[in-house]
Amino acid sequence: MCKHQMSIIDFARRGQSIYIVLQGYDAQSDKPFAGEVRILGNNIYGDMIHPNKSLLSESCRQFIKDTILIKLQNQEI
Questions:
Q1: What is the SS3 assignment for 47?
Q2: Which domain of life is it from (predicted)?
Q3: Which of 11, 28, 31, 36 can pair with 20 through a Cys bridge, CB separation 3.0 to 4.6 Å?
Q4: Are 11 and 36 in contact (CB under 8 A)?
């Protein structure tokens, strides 16, 4: 069974926000994805992870959020 994958391509800090460009693979829908999210505090925003706007599966959206928060906590971003 395949697993979700995500790579951070680039990120930039602007004021209190962090903009992240990422790409990956949604294992549930069997499709690649690419896009951008914005972080403000511990909140992650963007159409890519919005439940009503995203084409990604719910489990992939959660995987993206969890992975980004872990990278923030580990100061990798």
A1: helix
A2: Bacteria
A3: 11
A4: no
Boundaries of every domain in the chain: 5-73
- Counting Cα atoms < 13 Å in the Cβ hemisphere of 68 gives 29
Instruction: Write the pLDDT tens digit of every residue in 4-63.
Output: 999 999 999 999 999 999 999 999 999 999 999 999 988 999 999 999 999 999 999 999
The residue whose two tokens read 């499709």 is 31
Asked if residues 31 and 24 have their Cβ atoms less than 8 Å apart, the reply is no
DSSP code for 56: S
Rounded to two decimals, the pTM is 0.90
Going 53 to 57 to 58 to 60, the CA torsion angle's sign is negative
